[in-house]
Amino acid sequence: MVTTETGAVRVSARDAARIAAVVVAPTLAAGVIVRRRGGMALAERYAVDRRAIGLLGELRRRYGSGPLRADVGGRHFALVLRTDDALRVLDATPDPYSPATREKRAALEQFQPHGVLISRGAERAGRRALNESVLETGNQLHSLAPRLVRTVREEAGGLLRSVTADAGELAWDDFAAAWDRTVRRVTLGDGARDDTALTAMLGRLRATANWSVAAPRRTGLRERFEQRLRAHVGRAEPGSLAAALAATPAGPGLDPAGQVPHWLFAFDAAGIAAYRTLALLATHTAQEAQVRGEVAVTDLTEPHLLPYTRACVLESVRLWPTTPFLLREAVRDTEWGGGTLPAGTGFLVYTPLFHRDDALPYADRFTPEVWLDGTAQDTAGLLPFSAGPGACPGEDLVLLLTSTLLAALVERHAWLPDRPGRLRPDRPLPRTLDHFGLRFAVLPHH
After folding, report:
1. What pLDDT, in 10s, does the model give residues 161-179?
2. Is the pLDDT of residue 1 over 50?
3. Which of 230, 304, 374, 387 has the fewest CB atoms found within 10 Å of its own CB?
4. Nearest 5 degrees, angle CA 50-CA 364-CA 79?
5. In the structure, what pLDDT confidence band is assigned to residue 6 with cuts at 50, 70 and 90?
6. How many CA atoms lie within 13 A of 267 on its CB side?
7. CA 126 to CA 36: how far, in whole Å?
């Protein structure tokens, strides 16, 4: 162990290589900007998150609680191992710890060059305020909730009719297609419902963005995507987020339409969380009964909070974070442990380390109750939507849409997973779950 002049703890070259191979590389292989089917299958097969958490626990015992400094490719990185340090970094967003890291900018510029996540200074402040205003951060029932709920239920009904008329089986591709239709309607209006070409273009740009700094610039594709997207945004169809965006004042240079690609991108992770939640409910009868009870006493044609169902989604994201790494970059020198970490240091917060901490009695169990009884709020390391000024501004909207979708799916149907053993409630839940591999038989429920 070497304590550097910065006051941080520098790991050995061997341990730096282990961190790269066991923690970072599997996450990159599974896809950071868009999930890779093969990478996710291998990640579950080889239990990569369990291995990563085990290694970080070992390094914490050997080196102390860090942050651990590793220099890779000429870049300074600090791996955060303590909850207090993670919150310190996240709470001090964007100065001195900016979300617009070098790697994130290289990736997201492929399809959202003016997005808030890769903006700094006054532009970031203005774009963040714009996003919060349109998405109504902090409002659990968005002002567009009646229209949004109706949209979700219509698309859920269409999915159910399609599945039950066919083989009575639901796989990820069918679910994702229905979710994409929902997202296009919610974001851009009914006129974009069937614009699968728009989603396909974004998917290709995101696949390129997975390579971050190593990716070629796909300028032509991005221009065609932006032209198509801005035509939808320009319609400002009533009842859509695009209409709310058009009605929100924006200062010069903020590029309101340039914020929309990130909404489409982020909703993809919400769909993954909802699908995993469906798998949890299908294998945990007690929690499923709670959701069905909540649904039975609720008029689902009207917007409702559905607190227990929302808690199930939050618990799904705790168990399997859709953003495993929260990244920040120091914009100036910062003091750590009596020393200084230089400007440009990249801070890595690996959320599974905190969400699945062995000290949590519910670490590997499906326990939505912790989000209702104050336990989760009193546990600082639970970061399903990040934390601090850089937390996801669309958290409330995501939870409204996903809980409404789940309620619609379980209202009159039962879901039987093809491999229920992987999520048995009497065993620790896996720390990696490949959503691509989840399949369900769908039956009427009386």
Report:
1. 999 987 899 999 999 999 9
2. no
3. 374
4. 45
5. very low
6. 27
7. 33
* Chain-centroid distance, C-alpha 57: 24
Task: Give Cα 304 distance to the centre of its chain.
Answer: 23
Predicted local distance difference test score (pLDDT) of residue 338: 76
| C-alpha–C-alpha distance, residues 368 and 315, integer Å | 5
Cβ distance 149 to 302 under 8 Å? yes
Q: How far is CA 106 from CA 35, 98, 344, in A?
A: 18, 15, 15
SS3 at position 444: strand
When computed from its CA atoms, the radius of gyration of the chain, rounded to whole angstroms, is 22
pLDDT above 70: percentage of residues in the chain: 98
Question: Is the Cβ–Cβ distance between 337 and 7 less than 8 Å?
Answer: yes
Helices (H), 46-171: 48-63, 83-91, 102-108, 121-135, 145-165
Of 53, 84, 50, residue with least CA distance to 66: 84
Say how far apart CA 430 and CA 364 lie, in whole Å: 7
**Measured between alpha carbons, how far is 400 from 370 in angstroms, rounded to an integer?**
19
The answer to whether the CB of 193 falls within 8 A of the CB of 181 is yes
pLDDT, average across residues 402-409: 98
How many whole angstroms separate alpha carbon 357 and alpha carbon 360? 6
Helix (H, G, I), strand (E, B) or coil at 198: helix
CB 312 within 8 A of CB 281: yes
Place of tokens 């292989």: 29
> Tokens 């490719």 — which residue?
73
Average pLDDT, the chain: 95
As to burial, measured by CB atoms within 10 angstroms (0-12 exposed, 13-18 middle, 19+ buried), residue 215 is middle
Q: Give yes or no for residue 402 having a pLDDT over 70.
A: yes
Question: Which residue type, as a one-letter code, is found at position 215?
Answer: A
CB–CB of 115/258 below 8 Å? Answer: yes
Evaluate the CA torsion angle 362, 367, 368, 369 in order and state its sign: negative
Look up residue 351 and give its amino acid.
T
Tokens describing residue 202: 């974004």
Distances (CA, A) of 250 to 105, 173, 228, 265, 303: 23, 37, 22, 22, 29
Q: Is residue 7's pLDDT more than 80? A: no
pLDDT surpassing 50 at residue 4: no
